[in-house]
Amino acid sequence: GNSVTQMEGPVTLSEEAFLTINCTYTATGYPSLFWYVQYPGEGLQLLLKATKADDKGSNKGFEATYRKETTSFHLEKGSVQVSDSAVYFCALSDNTGGFKTIFGAGTRLFVKA
Amino acid sequence: DAMVIQNPRYQVTQFGKPVTLSCSQTLNHNVMYWYQQKSSQAPKLLFHYYDKDFNNEADTPDNFQSRRPNTSFCFLDIRSPGLGDAAMYLCATSKQTGENTEAFFGQGTRLTVV
Question: What is the mean pLDDT of chain A?
């Protein structure tokens, strides 16, 4: 079945540091890939998405590229801010999996001033 | 603004007392989902509706039921809440057409069982 694996956290960075959160996936079809962000006590917000191989999703300085050859969708940001502190979830949606969105375990990011 | 709205944000219920959580959407999406999220864990899909078709996950306990009376509303019923059912419950919707398959989430209902 479909699954998503992402790096364990927490990740602690200083402000303006470079961020990478690794994500790999397993899917039987051709999934769409997503990164969601969750702030404390809130629901999940879509951060960015990519729907086919080699697509790059980007938003608010975050980027991720859909790599079919390595089945990866790593999240990157060149300079993090304290306000980026949150939990980040990598996810996929595959119509062959019944229109379900499957999430990775989540990675908590702490950014220190 | 079009959105997914969950009520209430916080719900306290007694052990064994039935409770219903509500979700409404103004996005006119055909798919609605209920997820359970426990502290520091990923959201776990309980079930979803594709239009009126109900799809239960194999490991969702019978204690959890759902109703979708129309496109806009979906309810989660917990028939006899146990202490282990305390969690954040997230409602989400998606359109599932073309490349637009992302899920849009409500703010969640945090359920406490006492």
Answer: 92
Separation CA A30–CA B63 (nearest Å): 34
Whole-angstrom Cα distance, residue A45 to residue A60? 13
Torsion of CA B77, B83, B88, B90, to 10 degrees: -30
Q: What are phi and psi of B101, to 5 degrees?
A: -115, 5
* Residue A27 neighbours by CB distance under 10 Å: 19
Q: Per-residue pLDDT tens for A17-62?
A: 999 999 999 988 788 999 999 998 888 999 999 999 999 999 999 9
Q: Give the minimum alpha-carbon distance from B50 to chain A in angstroms, rounded to a whole number.
A: 8
Q: Which residue of A has its CA nearest to B36?
A: A43
Q: Which amino acid does the sequence have at B68? A: R
Provide DSSP, A20-48. EE-EEEE-SS--EEEEEEE-TTS-EEEEE
CB-count burial class (<10 Å; 0-12, 13-18, 19+) for A67: middle
Indicate yes or no: CB of B94 within 8 angstroms of CB of A93.
yes
A31-46 burial by CB neighbour count: b if 16+ within 10 A, else e? bbbbbbbbeeebbbeb
- Whole-number Å distance between alpha carbons of A52 and B102: 13
